[in-house]
Structures are given as structure tokens and as C-alpha cells.
């Protein structure tokens, strides 16, 4: 394990808060399978909202609880299924298995349906689909806060609510956790569209109740911008395969069959979390593809066992339990390809983060990209290494210009670009790369 990863893991162990629960893992509860059976209550309505086509949609969840449990204040995990925001269900095999496994340990779990579908299948509509999913997840969180303050049917401890999921479900959970200002998505959607959708909180049900959660579980997911993860944010547990071709381990275009947009994968999020002192437990599935624990064959089940053990370790840490780990974090693979990012007020993300960029060193940082804002021509210069490739992407991740070079000083004709904001990514002959946000006027 790399020194930085060990430091982040040990720091997490030392900073876990205790909330006054006496021996929360008494008799192995939350750490082992202390219940033999799980009770399932299906199709509980937690809200409603309009689908992408305008049809009224009733939002339902399945609730898993340990059979015979008498504990009145139980930690809750809300699981969100995958499906590229086009399909999937609360009964998908992965969320079913995770709910069953953790309910046997004494947790209660809710697997939720949320609004899926978008058309045309493009970047702008994909962003709207993510916003709708986040709104529905927040309505589900509010549903349990409301229940606790009224009928207390589900015996939830609202100070110990966790959210998580696979693929699109993990993307939803991460955005629910770290997207906290509409200005952060203003590069993707206009203010009028965001308002029309119902803003980040949405109108899917249970207004007026809290959406606070304790931590997020990210299984093969990503966040639109790593910079949305900030100091004092809630902890994160991530697992991701290095050969994931759908949601990239590092930074890349998410591609569920149609390339949509750039997202920052788990590798970047772990790097950012460590830089801003947010607890991040990270496990790399070396050589594995997208959600390798999906399925019922022996290989998938082995991956699911690893997933259960690693997530279990994270959760018992959050509960303040003194339990031996079942699956220690391993060393992240690949350099974290971070890029200069900006807050809503236009200032660059903090220097602590930039100082930890694994993909850049002094040679790379000596690259000059000018002018910015640019007109119809952009110049790039490095005094030591030749520039090999330059790619210019719009904010949706679409490639506007892609060219190869073999020179230290180059000029790029940008006259055909429309006015707006772009990301210029360059690679040097020594393999180093970097990226810069530029304005075209």
C-alpha cells in the first residue's frame, strides 16, 4: 500500500466520531451475520414526480429488515440501482444482494426505484436524468426522516443514514452527497432549466424534512467535477475496476453504449478527498471491468464477497465499532489525472489539491497556453518537451478539436468554435499531460 493511501486510511480511523451509542457492535451486530433471515416489504410509496416525458410517476422502495429484530434505532442504507439512467430496477441482483447481506448484520436497507429514461440520448438530457435521480433519492431520505418524526414505522436512526449504489446508482449517490449548489451545474444546464426541474432538492415528496446523510458508498461511480468534493464533506467509500469501460476508473467519457460526457471516476475522487482531508476508503479491482460483482457465477460472487467485506469495514468504522477489518484498502493504480478546476465564484480550487496532482510535475506545469480568453487562435508552448497531442472538449465532453503535433510551440485554429467555455488537454512527448479551462469569446 502506498504511503499516501496508508496515511489517508489511518487518518480516517483516527477521526471517526463517536455518537454516544454504547457498544454499537455488541455481540457482533453490524459486523457479522447475526440474523438468519430477512423480512422484505415491497413497493412502499415514498414520493411521486413527473417523468422525462411528463407522465406522473409513483416512486416506490423495497424495505429489508432483520427478521425478529427489536432494536428501535437502526442504521439505514439506501441503495440506488444502476442502468445508465435509462433502465434498471430496485430488484436488480446487486442491490438485492447488498440489501440482504447487510440486513443480516442488523442494518435496515431500502432499495429505491427512481425516474429513469431520457430522450434524445445526449449529454444535456443525461444531466437532467442525473438531477431527477438525485431529487428522488433526496425524497427517499426525507421519507425516512418524516417517518421517524411521525409514526416511526421503520425504526430508523436518522443520524446514521448511508446512501450508495452501483454505476448510475453510485453516480446518483455521489451527486446527492457533494452537489450542493445549483451554480455548480450551471455549465451544463441554464438557470431556467434547473428551476423547471425543481432545483437540486426537487419536488418528489416529503418537503421540509432533512436530507442529511452520514456517508456515501460509491461502487463504480463518478462525479461530474472532483472539485465539488470539499473540506468537511461526508466520508466516502469507493470501489472501482481499472478496466471499467463504462464509467472510467480515472477521468474519462462515460459510455453506456453512447458517449455522453466526461466524469471524474473513483481514482480522482480518492485523490481529491485525501487532499482536502475527507475520509476516503478506496479499493481497486485491478484489471476488472464495470461492476465485476454483477451476476451469479463464481467470479462475480467472489467480487461481491470482497465488496461486502470492504463496505462492512467502512460502515462499522462510521458506527464507532472496534472490529478487525475483513478487507483492507489496497494501493490505488494509475496516476490521478486531475485538472485545474474552479469554484462557482471563478477562483481555482485550493492549492492543497493542486499540489497533490500525480499527473503533473514541474516540466508539465511549465506549459504555456495563451491567450485566455482566446480569440480565433490558441498558442501552446513548452521550452523542453515537444507537444504530442491536443484535444479541446466542450463542457459536455464532446471533442471539438483533436490534433497531433511534434513541436515545442504550436498554434491551433479555433475560428470554427462557438463562443463558450472549453477544456484544453495536452500531452507532451515524455507522457505527461495537463488540462486547462479556457474561454472562447
General description of the model:
Helix content is 24%, strand content 28%. With 441 residues, the protein is of the alpha/beta class. The strands form four sheets. Strands 1-2-4-3-5-6-8-11 form an eight-stranded mixed beta sheet, sandwiched between helices. It has a four-stranded antiparallel beta sheet with strand order 15-14-17-18, with no helix packed on it. It has nine helices and 18 strands. Helix 3 crosses helix 4 (168-178). A hairpin with a 6-residue loop joins strand 9 and strand 10 (261-265). It folds into two domains: 3-318, Alpha/Beta hydrolase fold, catalytic domain (Rossmann fold); 360-440, Immunoglobulin-like, CATH 2.60.40. The chain has helices at 3-14, 93-103, 123-149, 168-178, 191-197, 266-275, 298-318, 351-354, 362-365; strands at 38-50, 56-66, 74-80, 108-112, 156-166, 215-219, 222-223, 236-241, 251-254, 261-265, 280-285, 368-370, 377-381, 387-394, 399-407, 409-413, 420-428, 433-440.
Write the layout of secondary structure elements.
Blueprint: H1 3-14, E1 38-50, E2 56-66, E3 74-80, H2 93-103, E4 108-112, H3 123-149, E5 156-166, H4 168-178, H5 191-197, E6 215-219, E7 222-223, E8 236-241, E9 251-254, E10 261-265, H6 266-275, E11 280-285, H7 298-318, H8 351-354, H9 362-365, E12 368-370, E13 377-381, E14 387-394, E15 399-407, E16 409-413, E17 420-428, E18 433-440
Parallel strand pairs: 3-4, 3-5, 5-6, 6-8, 8-11
Antiparallel strand pairs: 1-2, 2-4, 7-10, 9-10, 12-13, 13-16, 14-15, 14-17, 17-18
Helix pairs in contact: 3-4
